[in-house]
Specification:
alpha+beta; elongated; transcription
Length: 240
C-alpha cells in the first residue's frame, strides 16, 4: 500500500498559510530552502506537493504527475489518497483536453468539474477545481504539479500567479536534486567498477588495464550493463 502524505497545518510552522503581499516573497524563500534541502528528486516532489497545499491559495490537495505522449498519466507524489485516486482513474483513458493543453501552455485550469464534460472522475471524488502547472517538458514527456479544491472557481489569476512562482522554485530544486543523484550514482558506479577490476586483477593475475578490458568484454558478451556486472562480481566476492 502506498504511504499517505497528509498535510498537517503545523507541518510548515515557518510559513504563513496562503501568503499574500509582502509575506509571499518571504514564504517562497523559506519554501525554496526546504526544497533544496531534499536529497533526491522523489523527496523534492514529496515536499513540493505538501508545500503547494500550504502556499497556493485555495489548494486542499496536490499531486505531481508525468504524462507521456500517447500514454497514461502516472502519479509520482501526492498529498493523500484522494489525489492518487483521481489521477489513477485516468489510466487507460484518452488524455483529457486539460492535460493536452499543457504541451503548449504552462498552465491549465478547471473551474468546475461538474460543469466540464469529461471530469466525472474529479466530481465523483468531490473535487471541483484544479490548477495544473508545468514543471518540466520535452517532446515526449510532461511533469506537472496539480492543485485541487472542493469548491468551484477557486483558482483565480492570483492563485495562478503564486502557483507559477512556486513551481519555478520547484523546477530549480528538482534539477539540482537530479544532478546530485546522478553524480552520486556515477561515483558509486565508479567505485563498484574499481572494486570489480581489483577482484579480477587478483583472481587472474593481470594488471588494471587488462582487468577492465576483461570486464568490458564480459559486459558486452552477456549484454549486461557494466555497472550491474561489477555489482554482481563484488557481491559474489563479498559473499565467499
Amino acid at each position: 500500500m502506498p504511504k499517505r502524505f497528509v498535510v498537517a497545518a503545523s507541518e510548515f510552522p515557518d510559513l504563513p498559510r496562503f501568503p499574500v503581499g509582502s509575506e509571499l516573497a518571504e514564504a517562497l524563500t523559506v519554501a525554496s530552502q526546504q526544497l533544496h534541502e531534499t536529497l533526491t528528486p522523489h523527496n523534492t516532489l514529496r515536499t513540493a506537493v505538501r508545500l503547494a497545499v500550504h502556499l497556493m491559495p485555495g489548494a486542499e490537495h496536490a499531486g505531481v504527475s508525468v504524462l507521456e505522449r500517447g500514454s497514461r498519466l502516472r502519479t509520482l507524489a501526492w498529498t493523500d489518497e484522494v489525489v492518487r485516486s483521481a489521477e489513477a482513474r485516468h489510466t487507460g483513458r484518452e488524455p483529457h483536453g486539460h492535460w493536452e493543453r499543457l504541451w503548449n501552455s504552462p498552465v491549465a485550469r478547471i473551474g468546475d468539474s461538474e460543469a466540464d464534460d469529461g471530469w466525472d472522475v474529479l466530481s465523483a471524488l468531490g473535487l471541483r477545481s484544479a490548477l495544473s502547472l508545468r514543471l518540466r517538458a520535452d517532446r515526449r514527456r510532461l511533469t506537472v504539479l496539480t492543485a485541487y479544491a472542493r469548491k468551484p472557481g477557486v483558482f483565480d489569476e492570483d492563485a495562478t500567479h503564486i502557483g507559477r512562482l512556486f513551481t519555478a522554485h520547484v523546477s530549480i530544486a528538482l534539477d539540482s536534486a537530479t544532478v546530485r543523484e546522478q553524480l552520486t550514482e556515477a561515483m558509486h558506479t565508479r567505485d563498484l567498477i574499481g572494486q570489480a577490476t581489483g577482484i579480477l586483477m587478483e583472481r587472474q593475475g593481470i594488471d588494471a588495464a587488462a582487468a577492465f578490458e576483461s570486464l568490458v568484454r564480459a559486459s558486452q558478451r552477456e549484454n549486461v550493463k557494466l555497472r550491474d556486472l561489477a555489482r554482481r562480481i563484488v557481491g559474489t566476492h563479498n559473499s565467499t
